[in-house]
Design a protein that fits this description.
- The protein has a single domain, classed as Undecaprenyl pyrophosphate synthetase (3-Layer(aba) Sandwich), CATH 3.40.1180.
- The relative contact order is 0.20.
- The protein has a six-stranded parallel β-sheet, with helices on both faces.
- The protein is built from seven helices and six strands.
- With 235 residues, the protein is an alpha/beta fold.
- The longest helix is centred in the middle third of the chain and has 24 residues.
- The mean pLDDT is 96.
Length: 235
């Protein structure tokens, strides 16, 4: 078990390997995503119990639209069903729900459910479950630059007044602390356009396990490994 006094405040997870897990088990790809959804629920509850304050799950990237139409539609149906089933549990566990990304492209039925659960859990004071949906870090930075440029043009911000905090305050994650720990499953060593600004000083933990095989004990091992790190922030 990890030390209770050194729990990372914010954990970001790239949940990779659902499709490969399904293929190796002789199942359709959506079966892998369904199993991955179960793991997301399990890991969320485990993280809350350990005292993690924020968990951000890379759920659907801007690049994922390139996948087959039936897979994309199935993913959103699965998300909607999961939101319907888990809303009450999020509230009973005092978990606040939030979303980052370009939500305007999502199906209207998905947006409606997201907005409902965000509003329903707004007053919760425990852990924040944050989903990255139709999210891409480069696009996030572009949106931040546009927002800053607009303020400069309007005269409410000077060029000399732009600093790191200015950029951070215009990102989708402006109300969240930067991740202390990034976990990536399936053994891939890349960021995949995820939280490029926010992960500057995050510790990175990679496991060869596919996401559907990542369980509570694996989360505990990742946190225990994090607690052994010497975080010097370049000093």
């Amino acid at each position: 078990m990890p030390e209770s006094t050194k729990i990372p405040q914010h954990i970001a997870i790239i949940m990779d390997g659902n499709g490969r897990w399904a293929r190796e088990h002789g199942l359709p790809k959506l079966a892998g995503h369904l199993e991955g959804t179960k793991r997301a629920d399990e890991i969320t509850e485990a993280a809350a119990a350990l005292g993690v304050k924020v968990i951000t799950l890379y759920t659907f990237s801007t690049e994922n639209w390139k996948r087959p139409k039936e897979e994309v539609e199935g993913l959103f149906r699965m998300l909607e069903s999961n939101l319907d089933q888990k809303e009450a549990k999020l509230n009973s566990n005092n978990i606040r729900f939030s979303v980052i990304g370009r939500l305007d492209r999502l199906p209207a039925s998905t947006r409606a459910r997201l907005e409902r659960v965000i509003e329903s859990t707004r007053g919760n004071t425990g852990m924040t479950l944050n989903l990255a949906l139709n999210y891409g870090a480069r696009l996030e930075i572009v949106d931040a630059v546009r927002g800053i440029a607009g303020e400069v043009k309007a005269g409410s911000l000077s060029v000399d007044g732009i600093g790191e905090e200015t950029i951070s305050s215009h990102l989708y994650t402006k109300s969240l602390p930067d991740p202390d720990l990034l976990i990536r499953t399936s053994g891939e060593y890349r960021l995949s356009n995820f939280l490029l600004w926010q992960l500057s000083y995050s510790e990175i933990y990679v496991t060869g396990k596919y996401w559907p095989d990542f369980r509570q004990k694996d989360l505990e091992e990742a946190i225990a490994d994090f607690q052994k790190r010497d975080r010097r922030y370049g000093g």
